[in-house]
Each structure stands twice: as C-alpha cells, then as structure tokens.
C-alpha cells in the first residue's frame, strides 16, 4: 500500500503540486481498495493485489495523459454527495455549491416550481430537489448525453427531476411558469483559452464553457429574457457569473426590468453570483 501511494505521487509530480498529488493518490487508493482515507493510512504495510495494482497503473496513465481525476474515476463530489461525471458534462466546481446554498437558503421554507437551465450533470437540480423536496424541479440542457448523465444522477440520489432537451438560445415554444430559475451557463470568453489548463481544454465540453469574445453576455441575455417571460411577479432568477462580469450582468438584468438585483462574491472574493426578482 505504501509503495503504491509513493508510486502515484511520484508519477504525478510533473502535473500536480505535492498536496494535489497526495490527495489524488488517496482518491485512487480509496476507489480501488474500497477503504476509507483513514483505513488506507493504517494499512500501509498491507500487500497490494496484482489486479488492484494494474488498475492503479491504468488510472495513473490516464492522469498523465491529462484526463482530470474526476473523469478517470467517473465521479465528482458536490455539496457533500458524489455525482457521476463524464466528458459530456462539466466537473462541478465549489463556487456552484455557493450558488446552490443561496438558492436553498432563500427558498427552502417555500414551495413552488424551479427550473435549472443548462443542467449538465444535474448537480444543481438534483441537490436542490433533495434539499427542497416540496419543490417541483425541471432541468434543461442542449446535450442528450448530458441529460442522460443527469438522469442517472437523479436516480442515484432518489431525486424526482424532470429533464428535458432545450436549446435556450432558440425561441421557447411553451408558456410554463416557474417560481425560481437558476443557471450556471457558459460564460468564459474564448480568449481565455490561452490561460487554461490542458485538463479543461482537452476534456471538458467546450459548449458548456465558452462564449464568443464579442458576445460575453450571450446566455445572460437569452436566459434573462426567457426568465422575464416565464417567471411570475416576485419570481427569482439566480445566475453564476464570470468573475469580471458582475456589473455588466447587474446592468443587463435591470435593463430587462428586474428589481432587487443583488451581486455576491464567492469565498475567494470574486464576483460570482447574481440574484434578480421579476
């Protein structure tokens, strides 16, 4: 066990910091052995079976090729739970947990109809349904593969969410009303690709990440207009945003007629979330 721990960390030192490599080493060993972090530590002298060693080597080879560890393992942690992920969906980020926390805090004592636009893995919709079980939850995504992953995550966590294919950039044919709409849409300008890691650029879905440099608020404009039509008076819209788009998104939402527009920072001190009231 100790030899495998050392092997993983040594192999990954060209790609990760020592702390990151150590964390990944434990993630791999926990997955392969079925032991907890603590049990791995106290079993360092335990013999490591050949089949498990072979699986670890395969995982390390994928990591060295640049595959994010979440895709290697097929799951990521979000809001204290594990969600299936593959290359059709974004890996959930901690900032999105903060968005979910805000939505939950505002609405858990209420009941109504909630929509998650661009659901990806379903982590927002599934988590909010589990945390606010009296709410009816719908979720849209343009990707059939992403919707399949999201549906499996809903079943995994026993959350009743209605997933539907939808391209939010196209006219929406229905007239449904939702009391809350939440979205973490694509918001990274194409120009930022030059500063992003290989793990993101080569493996995470580009259509869920990037917007044209000349139209960085594309999804906020379309989803904002959609929300204005499909929220009742007093309905709430929540967005995750690019860290330098806060003022622009606030101005956009006010121009659409929303009131009570509130901008919040994430734990790192970056503008990251906006709430608006219809």
Keywords summarizing the entry:
about 280 residues; alpha/beta
Short description:
The protein contains eleven helices and eleven strands.
Shape: elongated
Tell me the distance between the termini: 57 Å
Q: What gyration radius follows from the Cα positions, in whole Å?
A: 21 Å
Query: Could you tell me the strand content as a percent range?
Result: 15-25%
Helix and strand content put the structural class at alpha/beta
Fraction in helix:
40-55%
Mean pLDDT: 96
Count helical runs. 11
**Which segments are poorly predicted (pLDDT under 50) over 5 or more consecutive residues?**
none
Query: Which series of helices and strands comes N to C?
Result: HHHHHEEHEHEHEEEHEHEHEE
Strand order of the largest sheet: 5-4-3-6-9-11-10
The overall strand count is 11
Major β-sheet profile: 7 strands, mixed
Structural write-up:
42% of the residues lie in helices and 18% in strands. With 278 residues, the chain is an alpha/beta fold. The protein has a seven-stranded mixed β-sheet, with helices on both faces. Strands 1-2 form a two-stranded antiparallel sheet. A two-stranded parallel sheet has the order 7-8. Strand 3, helix 7 (123-131) and strand 4 form a beta-alpha-beta unit.
